[in-house]
């Protein structure tokens, strides 16, 4: 009987506190239209408008004919959509003595981009992996030199690099430009990979060593599968930098091997004939399409790579 009485008393106690336990907890939800939210979303809207308005102008202008462009209302949508400016920018616009549009420069840029990205990312990832997990004598000095190289202005190195490529007999060729992009991309990429690999659990590396795995086995079977986000970060950085580069393209190549950005400059700054603003806008959008597509396809992995250790020391 005493046990039954005790249980009843405990049950009554639980019933007494039940309403308080089942009630709402935590902080009071904020109002959707609070002053803080208005300021935050207002600032974001202004920033988005600042970047999207020029893009809108380029798109609508590229879809207009020249008579409509001459009317002067750059913000108005096209009354009659035409893709003739895009066709002319791709295949007919004059870039100096050649009038084959951006098509030749596009394929030159592709031939520059693909080997530069593959080689620089491979060498940088292996170097970062070595600096993070296979410490050797002088590794810290080597890493310090890489850090210094990552922040030296490119303009300082142009003349010595021109002399070196001339002596090697590859100045003015796509091969020479690929080597230049690969070398100048490696310092910052090595820093990113080294910091990322350092942030990975050291127990995985030690366990693989105990199991008898070697340098390449650990790199290919453990590090690479776990490092997709940082590889995407490196890929986006290299694609954006190499594709949008103008300085190296105009210095280290010749007219028949100009990349797309140099040809775009020749189209936009041409002083012969009529200024065809619709063709210029179409050419600009065509030139910037590749890095934009790459970022939109892999942007989520880019954010993950940055947040997962790409900027950690």
UniProtKB/TrEMBL annotation:
The chain crosses the membrane at residues 38-59, 112-132, 141-162, 168-197, 218-243, 281-303. Residues 106-298 form the ABC transmembrane type-1 domain. One of its GO terms (biological process) is transmembrane transport. The keyword Transmembrane applies. Keywords: Membrane, Transmembrane, Transmembrane helix, Transport. Gene3D superfamilies: MetI-like (1.10.3720.10). It holds the Pfam family BPD_transp_1. It is found in: Cell membrane. CDD domains: TM_PBP2. It is a multi-pass membrane protein. It comes from the Bacteria. One of its GO terms (cellular component) is plasma membrane. Belongs to the binding-protein-dependent transport system permease family. This is Carbohydrate ABC transporter permease.
């Amino acid at each position: 009987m005493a046990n039954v009485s005790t249980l009843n008393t405990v049950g009554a106690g639980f019933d007494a506190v039940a309403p308080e336990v089942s009630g709402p907890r935590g902080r009071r939800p904020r109002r959707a239209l609070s002053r803080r939210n208005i300021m935050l979303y207002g600032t974001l809207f202004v920033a988005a408008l600042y970047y999207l308005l020029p893009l809108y102008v380029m798109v609508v202008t590229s879809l207009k004919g020249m008579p409509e462009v001459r009317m002067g209302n750059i913000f108005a949508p096209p009354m009659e959509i035409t893709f003739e400016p895009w066709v002319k920018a791709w295949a007919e616009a004059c870039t100096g003595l050649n009038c084959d549009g951006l098509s030749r420069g596009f394929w030159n840029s592709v031939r520059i981009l693909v080997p530069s990205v593959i080689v620089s990312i491979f060498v940088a990832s292996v170097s970062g992996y070595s600096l993070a997990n296979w410490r050797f004598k002088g590794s810290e000095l080597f890493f310090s030199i890489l850090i210094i190289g990552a922040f030296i202005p490119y303009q300082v190195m142009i003349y010595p690099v021109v002399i070196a490529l001339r002596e090697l007999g590859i100045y003015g060729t796509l091969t020479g430009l690929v080597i230049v992009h690969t070398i100048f991309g490696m310092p910052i990429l090595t820093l990113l990979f080294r910091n990322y690999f350092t942030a990975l659990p050291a127990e995985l590396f030690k366990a693989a060593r105990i199991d008898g795995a070697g340098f390449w086995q650990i790199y290919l079977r453990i590090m690479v599968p776990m490092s997709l986000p940082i590889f995407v970060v490196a890929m986006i950085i290299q694609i954006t930098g190499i594709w949008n580069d103008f300085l190296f393209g105009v210095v280290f190549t010749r007219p028949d091997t100009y990349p797309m950005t140099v040809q775009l400059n020749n189209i936009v700054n041409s002083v012969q004939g009529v200024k065809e603003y619709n063709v210029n806008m179409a050419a600009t959008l065509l030139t910037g399409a590749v890095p934009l597509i790459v970022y939109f396809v892999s942007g989520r992995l880019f954010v993950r790579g940055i947040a997962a250790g790409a900027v950690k020391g």
